[in-house]
Amino acid sequence: MIQAFVANRRVPVTVVKATPNVVTQILKEDKNGYWAVQVSTGERKAKNTSKPLQGHFNKIQNSKVKSRSFPRHIREIRVIGEPEEKVGDTIKVSDVFSVGDTVSVTGTSKGKGFAGVVKRWGFAGGPRTHGQSDRHRAPGSIGQGTSPGRVWKGKRMAGRMGHDTVTVKNLKVVAINEDKNELQLSGPVPGVPKGLLIVRRTSVKKEGKEDVES
Predict the structure, then answer these.
(1) Domain 21-91 falls in which CATH fold?
(2) What is the pLDDT of residues 135-172, one digit of tens each?
(3) If you ran DSSP here, which 8-state letter would residue 199 be given?
């Protein structure tokens, strides 16, 4: 993360590596029931890519050299009508976003392991006095007696915390670096460094608004 100045205000900025996406397939409505564009990004070795995926990419690239690498991530983007993109086209960050756009970022949050109710749910814990020597971070009662005679599903208790799909909304595009394929967003994003993120544009910059200062 870095910092930038927007309308004379200092804001935290996250630099996201937005590598170009290559169109690997066009899903047609008459065959699949909807229109969609399949894009891929990243890189991994052929030995770590399944045979069906290798065959899928070989049809696109017209090459069967087993020593080369294949895309690591594949995602499908639904569209309303027939897309203009063709198989093999490259979609860059500047083709989708512009400075001032509002975006939402989806990623996998950091895993925090097995956590108690105080850390996981914000419970207050038990009293520190009157002989309560080991109830400081305990959950307390978790249910009733004869009725219902069990613990309700969804009861907030201790368990594994984090590693969930999280979406952060209303982030602004502060700057775009086409040479480095970088996207600078105002505010933090979920996940760990080098994690996979999905950035969606929710609204376009309105005319008449102040431009972002570098």
Answers:
(1) Double Stranded RNA Binding Domain (3.30.160)
(2) 999 999 999 989 999 999 999 999 999 999 999 999 99
(3) E
